[in-house]
Write a structure and sequence with these properties.
The protein has one domain. The protein is built from four helices and no strands. The protein has helices at 10-22, 27-40, 45-56, 58-64.
């Protein structure tokens, strides 16, 4: 298993610890779960929104082309 080290500003680290505490896990476990979820669901909200707009306005784009 690989490991990485990252530097976070104190304010971000504090937020990370607070979120982990809400879920009752360590910051490391919380980060691992979050990264795992992100990697298994790579489609971001932006991509979903862009896809929606492109599909919604497809006819308009065809006319303008």
């Amino acid at each position: 298993m690989a490991s990485i080290t990252i530097e976070l500003p104190d304010s971000q680290f504090q937020k990370l610890q607070e979120l982990a505490k809400v879920y009752g896990v360590s910051a490391e476990v919380f980060l691992c779960a979050t990264i795992e979820d992100w990697l298994s669901n790579p489609k971001s909200d932006f991509n979903q929104a862009a896809e929606y707009v492109l599909n919604k306005n497809a006819e308009l784009y065809r006319r303008l082309a």
